[in-house]
Amino acid sequence: MDQLNAFLGKFIDDLGASVHAGMVVIGEKLGLYKALAGAPATSAELAKKTGTDERYLREWLASQAAGGYITYDASTQQFSLTPEQAFTLATEDSPAYLPGAFELALGSLAAVPRIAESFRTGAGMGWGEHVEGVFHGCEKFFRPGYAANLVSSWIPALQGVQAKLEQGARVADVGCGTGSSTILMAKAFPKSEFFGFDYHDKSVEAAREKAQKEGLSDRVHFEVAKAKEFPGKDYDFVAVFDCLHDMGDPVGAAKHVRQSLAPGGTWMIVEPFANDELKDNLNPVGRVYYSFSTLLCTPCSRSQEVGMCLGAQAGEARIRDVVTNAGFTHFRRATETPFNIVYEART
């Protein structure tokens, strides 16, 4: 009975977390966290401040307090955010901003009926076939990690790349999505020219809008193109962020990257953190990535030619095989975070 009760406790935690995801998305969408970060408030005060219905808001606040996402003072009946809660829930440029992960989760779960049928048929599901929340949530999910690490530690960990970017280089961001990674690099290295490619047309449209808004359209260009077909030659630096494992033919994509590089050019591959053995990935981070991989990454790869289905927990050995089979002679793990591994490849 003790073991059963312990498992049931885990179930309650997970069930609460599942429905709580929707609460976080509502909180971000309506600006509730940002409003609460300013000062403690009762449900009535916060409702007036945010233009929301007090009764709905009261229920939402209770769910957040029960989950530990906001703080409740019973003596004043006020709700508030601690500094760490505000940092992760109300500060969009924070490196630990969380709401995007929940938007991505909710969007991914919308595909469950179709993915369940794919277990029987083996059919794929292309990235562009998911609901809008997947695209918006994915960008919000990955952007904080890129903002915290890309310029400050990932690029400096690569041999000679930072100096080239500072002097002025041609850069391709393959699988750029809505362009966050491309724009982060462009803002950090104003002498370089950047080309972002993605096979999802709506993501490319959003990326172009961002570049224009940031005043970068003169040297940041976005185009719809597959990873095996993106145009251009003599790139000094090619980057692939969290998408090599989504590709149907990652070896073919890697060969195209190698052919597109200038002599002495570098390919940076950012992948989800994973060990080579399944037993070593059976942890909370692995749980997140294997679940997203089941709903997003594996179906995406299966929908394309070859359909290698590396999965989001491919591990270094499999990524090395992909890269070396494409003709790269130099491959190493340059650096890592708890959520990503950064690899360097050169010919």
UniProtKB/TrEMBL annotation:
It comes from Terriglobus albidus. Gene3D superfamilies: Vaccinia Virus protein VP39 (3.40.50.150), Winged helix-like DNA-binding domain superfamily/Winged helix DNA-binding domain (1.10.10.10). InterPro entries: Methyltranfer_dom, SAM-binding_MTase, SAM-dependent_MTases_sf, WH-like_DNA-bd_sf, WH_DNA-bd_sf, WHD_Rv2258c. The keyword Lyase does not apply. Residues 166-283 form the Methyltransferase domain. GO terms for biological process: methylation. Keywords: Methyltransferase, Transferase. The lineage of its organism: Bacteria, Pseudomonadati, Acidobacteriota, Terriglobia, Terriglobales. This is Methyltransferase domain-containing protein. It comes from the Bacteria.
